[in-house]
Structures are given as structure tokens and as C-alpha cells.
Design goal:
- By secondary structure, the protein is mostly helical.
- A two-stranded antiparallel sheet has the order 1-2.
- A hairpin with a 5-residue loop joins β1 and β2.
């Protein structure tokens, strides 16, 4: 039987883009399971640990708090989402917030584009420009579903 490959904390940090200190912190707050240790006390990680850290990084990019992540980390990676309707609802709500943030950011991009095109200063970045012509709608918001 082939022995599973292990990684040091340094190698794990490099693979995941998460700092060694952050990995230790995630273990300390029990977001990650305690890492196995070598005889010398150094942490060792396996591929499944790297997968969990990757999931944490992905959820973090969405703006999800560490506490909000806990239920997702408790579910097996190959679990059927239909078995966890409460987590599906949490993700749907989180997705709506992100879509709203994208729309808000697109409004800022439209404002910048208008500044670059017209060169006129306005004091805000509302939906309408000074001559009451609506600012063009986002190409991003049309793609987000």
C-alpha cells in the first residue's frame, strides 16, 4: 500500500497561498483539525488538509466570516447539497450579497468611465449622470446569474 504524501507547514502555505501563521491560527480556533505531528513536533499536512484550507480561502474571498464557514467545513466534500438545505439557503443569500456588491462596484466603474469620456466632475456616482441620461448598464451584471 502506498503511503500518503505529507507536506510541511511551509509547503502547505505555499500551495494554498495562506500564511503559516494563518494556518496555525485556523488550527487554534478549530477551523482546521489539529495537524498531525512528526516525532520532532513539526506539523504535517495531507492532501485533504490542503483541500480544506483551499475551501476556507475560497469562502473567505466571498467575504464569509470564519464563523459562517464552520457548517460548510463540517460537511463532506462529496456530500449531496440536497441533504443540507440550510447550507444551500445560506449560500444563496451570500450569493445575493455578492451580486449586489458587484452591481455597486459596476456603478463606480461606470462613473469612472464617464469621467474619462466626458471629463466632467460630479460629486457622486448615482445611477444617473448630470444630463439625466442613464449610465450604461453593467456588462458584468448581465453575466452574473
Amino acid at each position: 500500500m502506498k503511503e500518503q504524501q505529507t507536506f510541511t507547514i511551509k509547503q502547505t502555505a505555499k500551495q494554498t497561498g495562506i500564511s503559516e501563521d494563518t494556518i496555525r491560527y485556523y488550527e487554534k480556533i478549530s477551523l482546521l483539525p489539529w495537524a498531525e505531528r512528526k516525532d520532532n513536533g513539526h506539523r504535517i499536512y495531507r492532501q485533504e488538509d490542503i483541500g480544506i484550507i483551499g475551501l476556507i480561502a475560497c469562502l473567505k474571498k466571498t467575504g464569509m466570516s470564519l464563523e459562517e464557514m464552520r457548517p460548510f467545513l463540517a460537511v463532506s466534500a462529496d456530500a449531496d447539497p440536497a441533504e443540507y438545505p440550510e447550507l444551500v439557503e445560506l449560500l444563496k443569500g451570500h450569493r445575493e450579497n455578492i451580486v449586489s456588491q458587484i452591481a455597486s462596484l459596476q456603478q463606480v466603474v461606470d462613473f469612472i468611465d464617464m469621467k474619462l469620456e466626458k471629463g466632467k466632475y460630479r460629486r457622486d456616482c448615482s445611477d444617473e449622470n448630470q444630463d439625466s441620461t442613464p449610465v450604461r448598464k453593467s456588462t458584468i451584471s448581465r453575466k452574473v446569474r
